[in-house]
Amino acid sequence: MKKERISLRYVIALIFAILLLGVIIITWNPVKEETVEEPVSEVIETVPAQISQKQYKKETVYTTTAVRMRAGASLNAKIIKVLKINTKLTKIGTEEKWTKILKGDKEYFVYSKYLSKNKTEIKKTTSKKKTTTTSKTKVKKATKGNKKVYQDYAYDLVINKYKWTEKDFDALVILWKKESNWNPKAKNKHTGAYGIPQALPGSKMKSAGSDWKTNYKTQIKWGLKYIKKRYGSPSKAYGHFKKTGWY
Questions:
Q1: Buried b (16+ CB within 10 A) or exposed e, 110-144
Q2: Local structure of 188: helix, strand or coil
Q3: DSSP 8-state secondary structure symbol assigned to residue 206
Q4: Where does 59-116 sit in CATH, by number?
Q5: At residue 28, does pLDDT exceed 70?
Q6: What stretches of 104-235 adopt beta strand conformation (E)?
Q7: What is the pLDDT, as a whole number, of residue 2?
Q8: Are the C-beta atoms of residues 212 and 202 closer than 8 Å to each other?
């Protein structure tokens, strides 16, 4: 009887030892380590990719002339601001012929052709300051506050009505600056040419409006219609002017 009790105890102890060993084996499971490491490795791989999408290479550029900053990469996009020459900008990318710039926390677009990594050297001339005082004062009155208004009106017609380019507008600005300095009352003493487009004679502009002597809009409308009919575009008109001195 005693032997049976002793053997029963050994059996119970053996069963208990087997159960304990099973618990230890179950709790020590290498699979659990893999479940911890997997998501960590995924995070390590995906996070840098997400960050890189938000980062962009910044570069400092400058405007080479007066140019319009737009809300989108299109000539039809809203004009946010007209930038002066040598305006410092932060470039963050490009889209075809447009450069994407960062201003504050917003992105805008400027025509790439009118941007440079270096500032544009502006040469000062003294000879122009020694012109006659009568013509000088007339030009100042016409251009000091209103020149931008005249050019903005012309820009709208150049781009939206005639579907010309920014290059054409720049050519127009230079052409009429040389002709009249954008002065609606400018008159050539020798030929009698009159107004912003220097119509010869000035009365030709009656076809655009009876107020041709004083209204810059009438003069600009007539001038652009004349350029369209005779040359096709301001760029071609300015090209003719450079060769001959007139258009």
A1: bbbbbbeeeeeeeeeeeeeeeeeeeeeeebeebbe
A2: coil
A3: G
A4: 2.30.30.40
A5: no
A6: 106-111, 115-116
A7: 47
A8: yes
- pLDDT tens, residue by residue, 44-71: 344 333 333 345 688 999 998 878 889 9
Angle between helices 166-180 and 216-230 (to 10 degrees): 120
Cross-strand pairs, 107:
102
Average pLDDT over residues 170-196: 93
* Residue-level length of the chain: 247
Q: Quote the CA–CA distance of 152 and 239 in Å, as a whole number.
A: 22
pLDDT at 186: 93
What are the residues facing 194 on neighbouring strands? 187, 199
Q: Rounded to 5 degrees, what angle do the CA atoms 107, 108, 109 make?
A: 135
Round to whole Å and give the CA distance between 195 and 185: 5
Question: Among 54-68, 104-118, 227-241, which is the least confidently predicted range?
Answer: 54-68
> Are 193 and 245 in contact, with CB atoms under 8 Å apart?
no
Cα Rg of the chain, angstroms: 38
Sign of the torsion angle spanned by Cα atoms 199, 201, 202, 208: negative
CA atoms within 13 A on the CB side of 38: 6
Q: Tally Cβ neighbours within 10 Å of residue 52.
A: 9
Other CB atoms within 10 A of residue 75 CB:
18
| Cα 136 from Cα 4, distance rounded (Å) | 131
Report the alpha-carbon distance of residue 47 to residue 27 in Å, rounded.
33
pTM to 2 decimal places: 0.48
Question: What is the domain partition of the chain in residue ranges?
Answer: 59-116, 127-244
